[in-house]
Amino acid sequence: MAVRATARNAPARRTVGLLAGIALGAALLAGCSSEGASTSCGLDACTVTFDRGVDAQASIFGVEARLVDAQDDVVTIEVGGERLSLTVGQQAAEVGGLAVTLDSVTDSEVQVRIARNGG
Fold this sequence. Notes:
Blueprint: H1 2-29, E1 33-35, E2 37-41, E3 45-51, E4 57-60, E5 63-71, E6 74-79, E7 82-87, E8 93-95, E9 98-105, E10 109-116
Antiparallel strand pairs: 1-4, 2-3, 3-10, 4-5, 5-6, 6-7, 8-9, 9-10
């Protein structure tokens, strides 16, 4: 009978394991926060959309990223205390183990991708 009871509990154990995995994944993705910006994060990369005309900043992988200036197609952002000037299509700039790329610039927002090196 003990074997039967164990067999009946297997689906419940799988469900608990699945829920624990989902909770862990959500906790990993929750490492991003922002003000004046929106973030979309995966395990190894985040896309940050900064609002122009406000003090926009985001915390990505424990590092602060802030929009400093946007003039025409040149954007200056600060990542981990280091200032970068980026243009769309430019190769990723490396900062503290992160690769930073400017995806797009419009009149209302600036979108950058911040990835862990290799991500």
